[in-house]
Design a protein that fits this description.
This protein is an alpha+beta fold and about 575 residues long. It is about 30% helix and about 25% strand. The protein has 16 helices and 24 strands. It has an 8-stranded mixed sheet with strand order 7-6-5-8-3-2-9-10. The longest helix has 18 residues. It is elongated and about 85 Å long. The structure holds adenosine-5'-diphosphate and magnesium ion (MG). Adenosine-5'-diphosphate binds next to helix 2, strand 4 and helix 3.
Length: about 575
């Protein structure tokens, strides 16, 4: 279909807005265009997180030389034939991406349609078409975007570090690679190929390319067919859960949708099978009649509106649950709390504590314990009385009662210990008897690249190995040592990956070294929900008393609430 400018009445019905927020949003639009063009090979390349260069090459249908300039006009599209927004079958349809990208960067587009003698190149600066000329080119389209936001310094300020932006690019590309297993994707970051999929059409194989062979092997296939829908999913066995929600991917009609509700539908299917704070890995491919889905609600098309959201929730949740029920192991049972005696409160293999819990705790503070005295940086000597909700320690001190969040408190203790121990000397590490092979996702790899210094300082010894290059699957790394603070019996590879995942948390210290220390502490700290003996509580309180900033965890949440003797007396009308 030729490219044409949409009539204004159609253009007006399109959800308009900012398409280009950051490099990853440019990559998303370019990759969608390549998919719409029927490409079977899509290569993505970024330099400096995409700020210097983003290049997407495909072997799709190409753009006619005569139309190359037109493709960069607003509302110019080849995808909306009858002006019928309800019948959109392509990923794009509003003709906004290319002009929006070109407006905030420098673009060079090279394209040759099948059968054309030669290709054409168009160059734009700040949205202005500077030149179009004939060039030799392979079949397909390559779009190179340089110097994003150079003329919009205010926008640059909202971006994160190049490695963080590269991580987001990797997230986008890997999600499309999972959705389109018949397309061979590759991603190259700063000259290094971070992952590639084969394009064989096997979703498990695509998943191996993105998350590694071990994860791919532990996935269950779920299929379900109905009169007007189909569901194909790969869902992780509970044994391969993760510490973040980022591993649940849902596609509706081949469009990656960031739907909290559908991700939750997947989580719900795992209810009782995963510990608190653990999340599944899943890729869900749901096809529904176009009339059930409105894609025209979000400028970047990241959200869709479902006509019957509850039904779709059930369509996802039920078959996944049924598949898991077939293999459900007994619910996770905790080993005894920290095993090593007194002073070293030993680390635990997990993390917890949701923001909601923190917020709830905060609210209680302001209402019920409002007049509490501000806590000094160091806390007084405390005597443990017991545990409430297997989450809070109840303790008594010279000035009244204290409720202590056991996870937050232990986090604080470990954070200060980790920081103290990895001063200027050699890193406090425990070598592993045999190195452990790690398989990292592109996002994790990007994080590791950005934080390898601090990770090393705190005792993680990792090295890259293997040939690298196309189709080798996820990058290979060898883990040779873990921080001394890690308990000897935790699975080191899992611990490492959890610490990386925890580093993606938004809260926490800004300094990279402290960020890593906080993640190690969070990973290693005792969890909410664990029963502690009085001795263990006493140990934890002793250690907390020695902390410099005992009253908050490294993420800034309070470790304790204080109800003063005065307040108690007042409440019981003794005063
Ligand atoms: P939309 O995708 O909404 O149509 P875009 O601004 O993203 O709008 O692209 C404008 C037009 O340029 C598309 O409709 C398509 O005809 C053409 N185009 C863009 N990228 C490619 C590509 N990689 N291969 C072939 N055609 C493309
Ligand atoms: Mg598009």
């Amino acid at each position: 279909m030729p490219i044409r400018v949409l009539p204004p009445e159609v253009a007006r019905r399109i959800a308009a807005g900012e398409v280009v927020e950051r490099p990853a949003s440019v990559i998303k639009e370019l990759v969608e265009n390549s998919l719409d063009a029927g490409a079977t090979r899509i290569a993505v390349e970024v330099l400096e997180g995409g700020l210097r260069l983003m290049r997407v090459s495909d072997n799709g249908c190409g753009i006619d030389a005569a139309e190359l300039g037109l493709a960069f006009r607003r509302h110019a599209t080849s995808k909306l034939a009858a002006d019928d927004l309800a019948a959109v079958a392509t990923l794009g349809f509003r003709g906004e991406a290319l002009p929006s990208i070109a407006a905030v960067s420098e673009v060079e587009a090279v394209s040759r349609p099948e059968g054309a003698q030669s290709g054409a190149m168009a160059r734009l600066e700040a949205g202005e078409l500077r030149e179009v000329r004939t060039v030799a080119a392979p079949r397909g389209t390559t779009i190179a975007v340089r110097d994003l936001f150079r003329r919009q310094p205010a926008r640059l300020k909202f971006l994160r570090s190049p490695s963080a932006e590269a991580g987001q690019v990797a997230t986008v590309v890997s999600h499309y690679a999972l959705a389109y297993p018949e397309v061979a994707f590759s991603l190259t970051v700063d000259g290094r190929e971070t992952f590639a999929t084969t394009g064989s059409g096997s979703r498990r194989e695509a998943l191996a390319g993105v998350y590694g062979a071990a994860v791919a092997a532990a996935m269950l296939e779920v299929t379900d067919r109905g009169d007007d829908y189909s569901l194909d999913a790969l869902v992780g066995a509970p044994s391969v859960s993760r510490a973040s929600r980022a591993y649940v991917t849902v596609f509706i009609n081949r469009r990656w949708v960031r739907s909290r509700s559908l991700a939750f539908a997947v989580e719900e299917a795992y209810r009782g099978l995963l510990q608190t704070g653990r999340f599944p890995i899943a890729v869900v491919d749901l096809r529904l009649p176009a009339s059930e889905v409105d894609v025209n609600v979000h400028p970047a098309k990241a959200e869709v509106r479902l006509r019957d959201e509850r039904r779709v929730f059930a369509l996802v949740q039920r078959p996944v649950r049924a598949a898991l029920a077939g293999l459900a192991p007994p619910p996770f049972s905790e080993p005894v709390p920290w095993a090593r005696p007194p002073v070293s409160v030993s680390p635990r293999a997990a993390l917890i504590v949701t923001g909601a819990e923190a917020a709830a705790a905060e609210q209680e503070t302001s209402e019920d314990v409002a007049r509490q005295a501000p806590l000094p940086a160091r806390i007084p000597l405390l005597r443990p009385l017991g545990q409430a909700g297997t989450t809070y320690l109840i303790a008594e001190g010279p000035a009244g009662l204290y409720l202590i969040d056991q996870h937050a408190a232990h986090e604080r203790v470990l954070f200060e210990r980790v920081r103290r121990e990895s001063g200027d000397g050699p890193p406090p590490l425990q070598g592993l008897l045999a190195p452990v092979v790690l398989e990292l996702t592109p996002q994790q790899e990007a994080l590791l690249a950005a934080l390898s210094g601090p990770m090393r300082q705190h005792g993680f010894e990792v090295e890259a190995f293997g040939p690298g290059g196309r189709n080798r699957g996820a990058a290979g790394y060898l883990l040779r040592a873990v921080p001394a603070v890690m308990r000897a019996d935790v699975d080191p590879a899992r611990a490492f990956i959890e610490v990386l995942d925890l580093l993606t948390r938004e809260d926490g210290p800004a300094d990279p070294r402290d960020r890593v220390a906080a993640s190690i502490a969070c990973h290693a700290a005792v969890r909410a929900g664990q029963t502690l003996s009085l001795d263990e509580m006493r140990d934890l309180l002793r250690l907390l008393e020695e902390c410099e900033l005992a009253q908050s965890c490294p993420h800034g949440r309070p470790t304790m609430l204080h109800l003063s003797a005065d307040e108690l007396a007042r409440r019981f009308a003794r005063k």
